[in-house]
Design brief:
This protein is 35% helix and 29% strand. The protein is an alpha+beta fold.
């Protein structure tokens, strides 16, 4: 092989290396939000955006997302060659994660996570790879515990003044109710006394002296 041929081959190789570096450098993965806040048992949508090429196929798309915690990483979502791999998903997220595949061609990764738990909190990292590059991006999710039901306030007991008023009202009610009976009794006593007095006036003096004795 001549020297000129070797120089041409070296130039082609260097050119390919430079082109590959440029292409890989232009592939970017970003998050629409760096931080999410949600409440336990609610739903949320985590979203990433990545570079796409015209005419690119989902068969060349590889996505791997996981939750990074102090204990261990948990697989959130796995897409291999455009096909979802549910068996790779961690048990923590089984049946709770859904990918919006209609927007993958637009360079958007949207993961809907339902029935959030407090242990879903942490740093989420998604790695996106294609035949023309790959990159990663992270976002943080904080799930707070749901508010506990507030205890019912106990019924306040009546104040002493109120109790006194209640007792006074009850006494007045009893007195009013007993008033007719008192009047009837007094009238009966008065009639009896009047009859007794009249009887004494008409009584014989001898009998009256005996009665006084």
């Amino acid at each position: 092989m001549s020297l000129k041929t070797r120089e041409k081959m070296m130039c082609i190789i260097l050119l390919l290396i430079n082109l590959t570096s440029c292409v890989c450098g232009t592939f970017v993965v970003n998050v629409t939000q760096t931080s999410y806040q949600a409440e336990e048992n609610h739903n949320i949508t985590l979203e990433w955006m990545f570079t796409t090429k015209p005419g690119s196929s989902l068969h060349s798309l590889f996505i791997y997302c996981e939750l990074l915690t102090d204990l261990r990483p948990s697989v959130l979502f796995h897409l291999h060659g455009g096909v979802e791999v549910p068996e790779s998903q961690d048990e923590q997220f089984t049946g709770r994660v859904q990918c919006d595949k209609d927007v993958l061609r637009e360079g958007r990764l949207r993961l809907h996570v339902s029935r959030l738990r407090t242990n879903d909190s942490g740093l989420y990292m998604c790695e996106v790879s294609t035949r023309y590059g790959g990159s990663t991006a992270t976002c943080r999710l904080n799930v707070t515990a749901a508010d506990e039901p507030k205890p019912q306030r106990p019924t306040e007991s009546p104040q002493p003044e109120s109790r006194g008023r209640i007792g006074l009202n009850d006494g007045l009610g009893v007195a009013v109710a007993a008033l007719p009976f008192v009047c009837i009794t007094l009238c009966a006593v008065k009639v009896h006394f009047t009859r007794f007095t009249d009887k004494k006036k008409t009584m014989h003096p001898q009998k009256l002296r005996t009665l006084r004795c």
